[in-house]
Amino acid sequence: MSSKYPGPEEEDYKPVILHEYFHVYQHGNLSIPELPDTDGDWRTSNRNVYFNGGEVQVPFLMEGGAEYMAQYRYSKEAGVDAGYLKRVMEYKAESIKPYFNTGKSLRELGYDEEFNSYDILTWFVAYLVHNTSEETFRIDFWTQIEDLGFEEAFKSNFGKSADEMIAEFDTWVAQPIDVLLEIIP
Ligand SMILES: [Zn+2]
User: Fold this and answer.
1) What is the 20 CA–ligand 1 centroid distance (Å)?
2) Does the structure show a pLDDT above 80 at 77?
3) Contact assessment for residue 63 and residue 4, using Cβ atoms and an 8 Å cutoff
4) CA–CA separation, 166 and 160 (whole Å)
């Protein structure tokens, strides 16, 4: 857990646990052995081969998926107010301008951008879930990546290639925040 996260004494720590738990689930579905030359560095795990064909890991759907599912799940916990998820996503919308400024594709954003790349990736997953369903993302997509490969699994669940979807998202996410928040449950 990096320093960008809150400490255990804070309320925000609860979604962090759910975030890490979703990583366990993701890794359970992408069960390929570690390459011998990665020196145990998780950022060069060959799991990333699934996502962009390279070994240098990018946050993309691992982090966007973990963060959206964590916040979504947490928003449904007893005692969490109805506006929680919209509030979190409004805060994460601060990443939209810096993302456009990078000129990079979502799938190329790194861990060490000048803004929190997880935030814009969380918006992308919110967009995928809105256009399909939470189950499509969480169950169908993640359980098919290993068998179908990333591109095929993405296309068969979300209806277009990842690059096409990113282009569509870029147009959509340039709208005013009030419009964007309409998709957040
Ligand atoms: Zn994470």
Assistant:
1) 6
2) yes
3) no
4) 10
- Write down the H helix ranges in 30-160: 49-52, 60-75, 84-92, 96-102, 117-131, 134-135, 142-148, 150-158
- Say how many Å lie between the CA of residue 21 and the centre of ligand 1: 9
pTM of the full predicted structure? 0.87
Confidence grade of residue 140 (pLDDT, cut at 50, 70, 90): very high
Supply angle C-alpha 165, 168, 171, rounded to 5.
150
pLDDT > 70: percent of the chain: 80
Average pLDDT score over the chain: 87
Q: Crossing angle of helices 150-158/162-172, nearest 10°?
A: 50
**CA of 122 relative to ligand 1 center, distance in Å:** 11
Measured CA to CA, the distance from residue 154 to residue 74 in angstroms comes to 25
**How far apart are the CA of 23 and the centre of ligand 1, in A?**
7
